[in-house]
Sequence to fold (384 residues):
Amino acid sequence: MICPFMMGEFSPPTRTFPDLPQVSSPEQVETKGKIDSQRRVYSFLETPYQSRAALRAGGYVLVVAIVALAILCSTGHLATFPQDFLNWAHQVNWIPVGIGLGVAGVLSIGAIAVIFHVRKKDVDSITGKGIEKLRGNDHWKPACYSRADQPGALYWGHLDMSTRDEKDDGKVFFYGGKPEVAHYGASAAAIVWSFPHAIGAIAYNTLRFFVVPFYILVQMGRGKAFTLSDIPREMERSLFRIVKAPFFATAMIFSAIYSFFDPLNGRKLGSYVEREWNEQVTRAQGFWSVGGSQELFKFEGGGKPGRLGRIGFYSHGCWQPMGVVTFDNKKGTSMTSLAKAVDENSGQDYDLLIQDNFKEKQEALLDQLLRTTNPWVHGIVDED
Fold:
């Protein structure tokens, strides 16, 4: 997630910056490195997001179609394809085919219903808004951030500005950026792993259906604040999760396919679908298939009354927001990690860099550097 400019993937800055003084101390070298890093992403910050993925995806489909057509022609099957299809249709057992098509149709209808529900849901647990936009580019704002525990590194991505209110204030999500190869690889992985994720969820909740009632009875015997009414409620929760798993998995696949043509909006849709699948337990509170247990993870909500059942598993956590930015008076005033947005006593603050505050950040760092390299100029050392 480190900024691609470190690997030479960003365009050169579109403006000329003044030369920096020679430095010697480790503190000066670190400050100068921060200034250079910010300058290198200037062209990224000032360039509105434009998605050309649809054109690329169309090109890929065309290439595959041409190759397939060439193979058919070279093997001589193209001319006999209509007759071959009729022969197959007469020999095939249509009962399993019909069952397969019926199952696919039910899953597709259910997935569309899931997406419609997520799309129309009014309130997200963090931003207080639902999905305001799923098409177009005008709601995406290029941004970078740095972390105190990783000096010299910048993380790049885009802010979803659509969740601000009518005064352009509020909280917005920061979605991490991905180079093209990583993006399409992640989308393909979502298609492959969504149903194994669903199978795992079905297996876990089947086990949970039988185990949790005994757990509640044991805890009641120990004087915990559980009641007998918790047993049918938790069993119902397990059954509901078993039933919904295939439909959410199919919705994830649809989101991944959409992301091939509209990368940011597709990944955004997938993040909302998976977060709703986990019943608004964020990635910071869940278990990520790649990153393991996250900072606020507690298995089954710690097993406590009122929190039993709060467990999130993310097979595609890289689609989830990396942080939350607060806008006040139309300005990005602060950025926190996802964990801190959920629990203010956890996580950490990030240093946000966007086009709006670029000049301010540069001037502050330059002043810090010049004060240590030429204190006479800045009046730090008295001439007397």
Observations:
- The first strand starts at residue 140 and ends at 147.
- The CA atoms of residues 191 and 253 lie 5 Å apart.
- The two ends are 51 Å apart (CA to CA).
- The chain has a mean pLDDT of 81.
